[in-house]
Amino acid sequence: MNKSAIGMLIFGSTLSVGAYADSDIGEGHVHAGSSTELDHHTMHDQLSDKTWEFYGMLYASLQSSDAGNALDHSGHSSQTNLWLSTGETTLGFKGSVPLDHGLKAVWQIESTINLDEFGEAAGHAHGDQPAGYNSSKLAGGHNSFIGLSGDWGILLAGKHNTPFFDATIQFDLFHHIPGDVRAMLGRLPGVTSGSGDHHGGTFNVSASDTIMYKSPKLANGLSFEGAVFALNETLVDDNQADPSAFGVGARWQQKTFALVAAYEQHKNYDTFNHDNSSATPTVAIDKTSGLIVGGMMHFNDNNTMVGAFFEQLDMNTASLAIPSKSRDGYYINLQQRFMGKNKLKLALSEADAFQIRDGAQMVAIALARELGASTEVYATYAKTNNKQFASYNNGAAGPLGKGGDPQTLAIGIVHKF
Fold first, then answer.
1. What are the structural domains of the chain?
2. How far apart are CA 271 and CA 300, in angstroms?
């Protein structure tokens, strides 16, 4: 039985347990977990009902990071580093315009902004960017597209989260803060995504050259999406295999829970460096595939939320010298509201070994307080324990050298407008 069939089997057999996750403070890059509107990165509420609107999420946090015994980006021994982080801030424009025959033209241009570092020499001794790197990406550096919508669904073209990323992002209680699900899930050690999106690892990425279809929500709460990306733009016949990639996802949502499943496959798209060394030539991967199932349920008048994910990632290289490999990964999170606007969050994650002693575990805990409908403050702690040859990050510090145990303590604020 192939991986996609296994995914649908798991999806169908676990419909009675699942999850529903709303965002804390409405639309935008926010942490899942209240009874308000869904995060705008989910399948159903990306589009605007206005001709145009300006929107965004502002992030700022003071972080103290220690990479354990790992090395920094320059190869030096790391040390405790205190730094200001605003690099996850997003600004965007989006809108929709009525057309003939019941259609709408829909569009979005979203950029990521680093508020505290604009110079080319910006960087940290260790952190979410290498030294000398400016993470601001203007003019559509994030999800940006144009398309058509109607009663039949949405068809869009541009840059967009892959279906695999759509499945995970909507239930991440630590999105854009230490403990982010992307620190562990969707990553294969030594594998670089052809999308060039280094934040999301191998699969949790926003991919360019994307054509995507999103279905409307059906009467039974089921919806689905499919995308092709990495469309070949090579004009020279170099006798090399052309890259291609596709993904499909499904979501089943009810009043108190939702469940998601996604399968994605990349061909001649990703590259592999077996020892993460700049001196070692990378090899093209014939096929990389990922399967993920999971979701979240809420109960106790939306005050308690529990979620879980399981993923299986596989790699088949074009090189006979490198055997096919695979690994499993898990992510469990919990949120408990107390005294009205306070929230306690917990996440546990594990990535099994991909080669030899390169697995890792991560734990994250956060205390958050809503200050209004659009603003939240938080304190969080996240730590990743890497095996001898692993270099997973914790959503803030890293990725760094092998075997390090990065940990981060942060206090921050997030505001949606």
1. 3-416 (2.40.160.10)
2. 46
